[in-house]
């Protein structure tokens, strides 16, 4: 059991950084969960990382922790395990795990956790083998799950509205929604394993062979000629609606569950707002470039990069093409599975709304953990007395700026917010001050291209109407909810992210120059600044 000093059940406040001196990163979580989480959202996330995760790491510490309402990965656990068996992940880990370029400047000293090698292997190996077994599952099973989930969710949504007894609603959750969501967690973990590691290795191999620009171009055509990347669907679907090729209802059925706050259960989805689609269409029509034309142009660049590779290394080209095609198929599977995982999360929101009606707790239901919701539906409303103070704590944490993507040691959000010299790129209790050494802003190449333009610095996608055609978006992170804005942009620059993050993948597909994982771009740039973005080199130069 994890000691409760990291969690106050009365206020609902978590701070897993208090468990010890570890290194935490939200590079792989902030895109999915950019908001401060309500207790219900956090407990749904735990189903993915705890209940359905076959891998168990040694010690009493969580692999995914909650730091003042935001999800962070405990990298000390992972690094310490591999160190105990003779492997050092610290070299090169900054790209995929930390999302920081300037790790040498930061002089990171990774806190480690002592782990006896044999005990560590004995605990971890069975889970790793099970994960690999799940990743090799019959692909037809994934296809069946993807095909059946939308209809199943629609039917279940209608059924929830007709349940008037708390015990019937509880049974619908326990016997239907929760098991299917757990299946989605397992499938998502499987397809992610099939994509992430091979894609990272391929990017490095291609970078050494043909250079970063052509490597990005070769890996940009994930959708191919006839397929479609699901994360681009909300954008491309708007074009189809505008051209009369898709009905409005068909768009809502397929993409209405996607949005910038899709995994925060207290946040209403687009399908709940009558004018949501009209607003998105209006934004879409302001773009100076057609999304389909951008995709076609980038496919041509990808084909040209392939031709250069085949001329340079004809003996390796066939093998590389087979591997890239396999990676592209895995990427499409991962993006499709993320969509259905999200659809089931939004169905969980509707279950909670109905639970709030039947228990008369209203939207206070989101400030209960899911096991407390189950107890409330069984007649035990003891935890309901904590709802007001939990809501106040959540509102207070929401008022804070986004925390640093990398945290080392015990993090006090109140002390950090009060510090006028606080670091936005990383926080280390052992060091003072930010590390802004280079005159350039550095990030990971997301999509190649050089462009000069004016910065538009925004924190929320709801402020996207401020973006003018041809401006450079600078923000903390993006997710699928930002995708319809992309054709309007000259470039994308984010604080948080890695080469496989949403901003990088979508920008590559559309051929929009992008940098991710800059760490401090939002701290150093403001609206109106003129900059030069070099997506291939991974730099932003401030011009004036």
Features:
8-stranded mixed β-sheet, 544 residues, 18 helices, globular, 5-stranded mixed β-sheet, alpha/beta
Number of helices: 18
Oligomer classification: single chain
- Helix share, percent: 40-55%
Which class best fits the helix and strand makeup?
alpha/beta
Give the distance, in angstroms, between the N- and C-terminal Cα atoms: 54 Å
Shape: globular
Q: What is the arithmetic mean of pLDDT?
A: 86
Q: Count of DSSP E strands?
A: 15
As laid out across the biggest beta sheet, the strand order is 8-15-14-10-11-12-13-9
Describe this structure in words.
The protein has helices spanning 39-51, 75-84, 93-98, 103-106, 117-135, 139-161, 166-210, 212-218, 233-242, 248-255, 276-285, 291-312, 314-359, 370-377, 387-398, 413-418, 502-510, 521-524, and strands at residues 7-8, 13-14, 23-25, 64-67, 70-74, 406-408, 426-428, 441-442, 444-447, 450-457, 471-475, 489-494, 514-516, 530-534, 539-542. It is of the alpha/beta class and 544 residues long. Strands 8-15-14-10-11-12-13-9 form an eight-stranded mixed beta sheet. It has a five-stranded mixed beta sheet with strand order 4-5-3-6-7. The longest helix is centred in the middle third of the chain and has 46 residues, at 314-359.
Topology:
Blueprint: E1 7-8, E2 13-14, E3 23-25, H1 39-51, E4 64-67, E5 70-74, H2 75-84, H3 93-98, H4 103-106, H5 117-135, H6 139-161, H7 166-210, H8 212-218, H9 233-242, H10 248-255, H11 276-285, H12 291-312, H13 314-359, H14 370-377, H15 387-398, E6 406-408, H16 413-418, E7 426-428, E8 441-442, E9 444-447, E10 450-457, E11 471-475, E12 489-494, H17 502-510, E13 514-516, H18 521-524, E14 530-534, E15 539-542
Parallel strand pairs: 6-7, 10-11, 11-12, 12-13
Antiparallel strand pairs: 1-2, 3-5, 3-6, 4-5, 8-15, 9-13, 10-14, 14-15
Helix pairs in contact: 5-7, 6-7, 6-13, 7-8, 7-13, 8-12, 9-11, 12-13
